[in-house]
Write a structure and sequence with these properties.
Layout: H1 21-33, H2 35-46, E1 57-58, E2 66-67, E3 72-73, H3 75-79, E4 92-97, E5 103-107, H4 108-124, E6 133-136, H5 141-152, E7 157-159, H6 166-176, E8 180-184, E9 187-189, E10 192-194, H7 196-204, E11 214-218, E12 232-234, H8 235-240, E13 251-252, E14 256-262, E15 270-275, H9 277-289, E16 298-301, H10 308-320, E17 324-328, H11 339-347, E18 351-354, H12 356-368, E19 384-387, H13 394-404, E20 411-413, E21 448-451, E22 464-468, E23 478-479, H14 483-490, E24 500-508, E25 515-520, E26 524-527, E27 530-533, H15 534-542, E28 547-557, E29 561-570, H16 577-594, E30 603-606, H17 620-628
Parallel strand pairs: 4-17, 6-7, 6-8, 8-11, 11-12, 16-17, 16-18, 18-19, 19-20, 29-30
Antiparallel strand pairs: 1-2, 3-13, 4-5, 9-10, 14-15, 15-23, 21-22, 22-24, 24-25, 26-27, 28-29
C-alpha cells in the first residue's frame, strides 16, 4: 500500500463554523458551566418549534433521559418546509446517480411535494401517529422520501439494509410491530439485480408477517415480482393519486423518530430508539460544526440508508440545514474503481464522506490499475474529506489526504455510533490540527472520558473504556421493547450506572489530549464499517443441521478492517480437504441466507471439539490467536482439551 503522505501539514479552514481553538474552548466552557442552558440555546437557534419547550432535560428517571419533552415540532417540517421560502424551493436538494450512471435531480420544492404525497398515501392506508413502518429499499430518492414521509405523519420508521436476508428482515419487522412495509421490486448494485420484493415476501410468509397489512413497492427495474392483491400496491400509483400538500403531525420532542436495529453481543439484534427533537438537533449541528456546511457546498455521504450514517448524514442532517447532496445507488468499483472520482468531478462535490474500507479497496485498485488513480480525475472542488464506520489506519489516512485531497483538504476521522445519533469525537476543520489515526477531541457538550473497569478515570496515555459522563440530546432513548437491555448494556452497574459505555476501548494522548479509538471491547465485529454481533453469526451457524457447535471471532484485515473467522464442530466426523471445502461453502451460503451476505465468514475452520475450560466455557482468546496465525504461547493449563487447538490451524 502506498502512503502518499502530504508534503506539509494540512491547513485549518479559515472562517469555519467554529473558527479557531478559542471559539471551541468557549463552547466547551459554556457547556460545562451550565449544560442545560447550553443545549436549550442551541435547540432554540437551530430548530423550528411549533410549541416552544420549557423543560430542557428531565433526568428524574435516569438513564431514561428526556430532552425538550414539552416542546412540539416535526422533523420533516424542519428538513423541508422551512427551506421553501425566499426562493429556497428551487434549491437543489438531491442529486441521485443510479448504478448505470443515470442522474436525477430534485429541488427542495419537488422533494417536499413527493414527501407530502407519500405521507398522504400512508395516511390513506391507515397509518397513524405512533404506527411503525418498515423500509426495505435500495439507495434511492424513494428511500429518503419514505423516511421523511413517515416523519411527517409521526410514524416511526425502521429501515433494514437491502443486503439483509428474509429472516433478518422478518425478526426486525416482528420485533418492531410494523404494520406497513415499503420495498422495491429489485435493487441494482454493481450491475446485478437483487430481488428485494421476493425476499420481502419470504419474510412476510413467516409467523407474524400477517400483521403487515400493506406492502408498498417502488418499481425500480420493472422486473417480474410476486403480488398479493389487496395488500401490495405500487408506490408510483398511490403517490400520483395524492395531494402535494400535507399538514405535518406535530409531535413532542421525545416522540420516537425511528428504530434502527444494530448487532449486539447477544444473538438478538437490538432496536435502537431515537427521539425527534434531540436527534434532529445534533444531526443539524454536526453538519454545521464538523462539515462546516455552506450554501455553495455539494455534500456526498456514500453510506446506505440502512445504517445510522445514512439516517444522520443523508436523510436528516443535510436536509435539516438545506444542503445540496449526492446520493449514489451503486458500489465504488463499478464499472471500475474510478467511479467515486468520476462522480466527484461530475457533480462538483466539495465534501466527501466515506468509509475506511472503501478507501483501502480504492488504494489497492489504484496501485494495481494506475488508470483509476485519483490523480487521473478532476477533484479540485473538494475542500473537506471525512471517514466513518471504524477508525482509519494512518497509512490509508495519509493516502486519502494526499491523493484525493491534494494535501489541502482536512480529513475528518469521525467517531460516533448508531446509539449516539451523530459525531461525538471528531476533528473540527477550523480548530483541530490533524493527527493520522486519531479522532482528536470531543465536540462541545460531549464529556468523553477513559475509565477502568470500575469506572475510575485512567491517566492520559493509558488505555481503557471509552465513556460519556453526561447525557446529550441525540443519545438513544432505549432499546425498543427492552429497557432492561438498554440499562444493562449502556449504563452498567459495574461502572456505577451513570456512565454511558460506548463499548470501545480508547487511549488519550498525554500532550494533545487527542483520543484514539483502539477497537471494540465486546463481542461485536466491525466488518467494512458494519457492526456484526458474533453471537448472531454463531446462532446462524448452530442452526444448520450439520453443526454441533460454532464460535466466531474477528481477525485484522487490511481492506475490511476485520474478517469473520468461524470455528465449527460438526455433528458428524471432522471433514478434511475437498469435503471440508464443500461443507464450508454450504455453511457460508447458509449464513448468507440466514443473515445476509455481509455476515458470511471469510474463513471456516473445523475441529473435533472446541477448546474449553473445565467449566465448559470456550477459550476465545486462543481462537483469536489461531485466527491471526499466531503461535500459541498463552497459558493453556485451564483448557480441558488443548490438543484440539491444532485442528483449527487450517482454513477450509
Amino acid at each position: 500500500m502506498s502512503s502518499g503522505a502530504p508534503n506539509a501539514p494540512i491547513p485549518l479552514l479559515a472562517g469555519a463554523a467554529i473558527d479557531g481553538m478559542n471559539a471551541y474552548r468557549a463552547l466547551v466552557e459554556e457547556a460545562q458551566r451550565d449544560p442545560e442552558a447550553y443545549w436549550a440555546r442551541l435547540a432554540r437557534e437551530h430548530l423550528d418549534w411549533q410549541r416552544p419547550f420549557t423543560r430542557t432535560l428531565d433526568a428524574t428517571n435516569a438513564p431514561f433521559f428526556k430532552w425538550f419533552d414539552d416542546g412540539l415540532l416535526n422533523a420533516s417540517y424542519n428538513c423541508l418546509d422551512r427551506h421553501l421560502a425566499n426562493g429556497g424551493a428551487a434549491r437543489t436538494a438531491l442529486i441521485f446517480e443510479a448504478d448505470g450512471g443515470e442522474v436525477t435531480t430534485l429541488s427542495y420544492g419537488e422533494l417536499h411535494a413527493r414527501v407530502c404525497r407519500v405521507a398522504n398515501a400512508l395516511r390513506e392506508r391507515g397509518v397513524r401517529r405512533g404506527d411503525r413502518v418498515m423500509i426495505y429499499l435500495p439507495m434511492s430518492v424513494e428511500g429518503v422520501v419514505a423516511m421523511q414521509a413517515c416523519a411527517r405523519i409521526g410514524a416511526p420508521h425502521s429501515v433494514v439494509f437491502g443486503g439483509f436476508s428474509a429472516k433478518s428482515l422478518h425478526e426486525r419487522m416482528v420485533n418492531v410491530g410494523a404494520c406497513v412495509l415499503i420495498t422495491a421490486d429489485e435493487q441494482v448494485r454493481g450491475g446485478r439485480h437483487l430481488p428485494l420484493k421476493t425476499i420481502a415476501d419470504e419474510a412476510l410468509s413467516m409467523d407474524g408477517g400477517e400483521n403487515v397489512h400493506t406492502v408498498i413497492v417502488y418499481r425500480r427495474t420493472g422486473g417480474a415480482v410476486p403480488w398479493q392483491a389487496g395488500r401490495d400496491v405500487w408506490l408510483h400509483e398511490i403517490e400520483a393519486a395524492q395531494s402535494a400538500a400535507c399538514e405535518p403531525e406535530w409531535v413532542d420532542a421525545e416522540h420516537p423518530l425511528f428504530i434502527l436495529y444494530t448487532s449486539g453481543s447477544t444473538g438478538t439484534p437490538k432496536g435502537v430508539q431515537h427521539s425527534t427533537g434531540g436527534y434532529l438537533l445534533w444531526a443539524a449541528l454536526t453538519m454545521k460544526w464538523t462539515f462546516d456546511i455552506r450554501a455553495s457546498d455539494v455534500f456526498w455521504c456514500t453510506a446506505d440508508i440502512g445504517w445510522i450514517t445514512g439516517h444522520s448524514y443523508i436523510c436528516y442532517g443535510p436536509t435539516a440545514v438545506g444542503a445540496t447532496q449526492v446520493i449514489f445507488e451503486g458500489v465504488p468499483t463499478w464499472p471500475d474503481a474510478g467511479r467515486f472520482w468520476q462522480m466527484i468531478g461530475r457533480h462538483k462535490v466539495s465534501i466527501f464522506y466515506t468509509a475506511p474500507t472503501a478507501i483501502r479497496s480504492l488504494i489497492k485498485a489504484a496501485d494495481s490499475h494506475p488508470e483509476v488513480h485519483p490523480s487521473r480525475y478532476d477533484l479540485g472542488t473538494l475542500r473537506l474529506l471525512g471517514t466513518v464506520g471504524e477508525p482509519i489506519n494512518p497509512d490509508a489516512w495519509r493516502w486519502f489526504a494526499a491523493e484525493v485531497g491534494g494535501g489541502r483538504c482536512p480529513v475528518l476521522d469521525t467517531f460516533w455510533q448508531t446509539e449516539t445519533g451523530g459525531h461525538m469525537i471528531a476533528p473540527l476543520p477550523g480548530v483541530t490540527p490533524l493527527v493520522p489515526g486519531s479522532c482528536t477531541l470531543p465536540l462541545p457538550g460531549i464529556e468523553a472520558a477513559i475509565v477502568d473497569e470500575s469506572g475510575r478515570d485512567v491517566p492520559n496515555g493509558n488505555g481503557g473504556l471509552l465513556v460519556i459522563k453526561r447525557p446529550w440530546p441525540s443519545m438513544l432513548r432505549t432499546v425498543w421493547g427492552n429497557p432492561a437491555r438498554y440499562r444493562a448494556g449502556y449504563f452498567p452497574e459495574e461502572l456505577g450506572g451513570t456512565l454511558y459505555l460506548a463499548g470501545d476501548g480508547a487511549i488519550r494522548d498525554p500532550h494533545t489530549g487527542y483520543f484514539t479509538i483502539t477497537g471494540r471491547v465486546d463481542d461485536v465485529l466491525n466488518v467494512s464499517g458494519h457492526r456484526m454481533g458474533t453471537a448472531e453469526i454463531e446462532s446462524a451457524l448452530a442452526a444448520h443441521p450439520e453443526v454441533a457447535e460454532a464460535a466466531v471471532v474477528g481477525r485484522p484485515d487490511a481492506t475490511t478492517g476485520e474478517a469473520i473467522v468461524a470455528f465449527v464442530v460438526l455433528k458428524g466426523q471432522r471433514p478434511v480437504d475437498a469435503e471440508a471445502q464443500r461443507v464450508a461453502d454450504a455453511l457460508r451460503a447458509w449464513v448468507g441466507h440466514e443473515i445476509g451476505p455481509i455476515a458470511k465468514p471469510r474463513e471456516i475452520r473445523f475441529g473435533d471439539a472446541m477448546p474449553k475450560t473445565r467449566s465448559g466455557k470456550i477459550v476465545r482468546r486462543l481462537l483469536r490467536s489461531v485466527a491471526k496465525g499466531e503461535a500459541i504461547e498463552q497459558d493453556t493449563s485451564t483448557v480441558e482439551n488443548p490438543a484440539v487447538i491444532s485442528q483449527f490451524s487450517k482454513a477450509a
